[in-house]
Amino acid sequence: MKIRILIAILSLPLLFLLVLGGTRYAADCLARAQSVTPPFPSPEFQQRGIPILMYHKVNPDPRSGGLGLRVPPYKFARQMEYLAAHGFHTVSLVDVVDHFQKGKPLPSRPVVITFDDGYLDNYTYAFPILKRHRFTATIFVVAGTVGKTNVFDARVQPVNRMAGWRELREMAAYGITIGAHTLDHPRLTGLPLEEARRQIRESKAILEAGLGRPVEVFSYPYGRYNLKLARLVKESGYRAAVTTVQGLARPGDDPYTLKRVRVMGSYNMQKFITELLKYYYYPPAPVAAGGRRY
Ligand SMILES: [Zn+2]
């Protein structure tokens, strides 16, 4: 018995040392993480490009999908806090195009936040976080699935509810831009041009009728686009369109093939910051028209 008490007394300082060591280790890691954060771009770098962040689902439930398309809300909240704390200002895609084409002034350190597909979780989880910072964003809605489920990718993804008209109208009234993402999310490059035109035009018309406001921006499903499709989007009355090609939106870019910066659910803060800032410094390698998945 006495030996056990002795062991307990002797192990206490050992335990203390272990805890202290652990804390020191954590502090070291934090310091290291902060030191590798790239310095912020100078103003002339900011003039050269604007990040358009690309999200899909913001959802805590792993059953709603993998971390490729799903960012947990606590991570999204930290990312928005980071943007707010570091002087980023959210702007719309039309603001960006007007800035590039007509010199419309933008606030310092502009960023565009976009969500593809129009999931209900954008309203449930992302919208309250955006409101907390008075941030705006753009949601590209699959016009044929408003208030329904993700039938467009149900074979490869779990069933998710899509935002209904009530949620879309409430977000639009706050200042969220609603854009179009076709009628039923096809790969536009694989369709006859007439059907592609219908997808691009009718999704705009349905969303405008449902929202009672103009729909001026478009996102290519799976990032599949070509120059013919970009022309169709322009002729259909849109002001801008986004792809999944990685990079910043830059002056002189075709407003109908804008690049974005993907944010995945697996990213920690360091990775998020690296992705957010890396294109300011490293021009991306040219990517062939046609885009990539997502
Ligand atoms: Zn999509």
TrEMBL record:
GO BP field: carbohydrate metabolic process
Source organism of this protein record: Desulfofundulus australicus DSM 11792
Keyword Repressor: no
PANTHER family linked: POLY-BETA-1,6-N-ACETYL-D-GLUCOSAMINE N-DEACETYLASE (PTHR34216:SF3), PTHR34216
Compartment(s): Secreted
Record-linked SUPFAM superfamilies: Glycoside hydrolase/deacetylase (SSF88713)
The keyword Cytoplasm is assigned to this record: no
Main location (coarse class): secreted
Positions of the NodB homology domain: 109-294
Pfam families the record matches: Polysacc_deac_1
Assigned GO CC terms: extracellular region
This protein's UniProt keywords: Signal
Name of the protein: Polysaccharide deacetylase
Molecular function via GO: hydrolase activity, acting on carbon-nitrogen (but not peptide) bonds
Classification via InterPro entries: Glyco_hydro/deAcase_b/a-brl, NODB_dom, Polysacch_Deacetylase
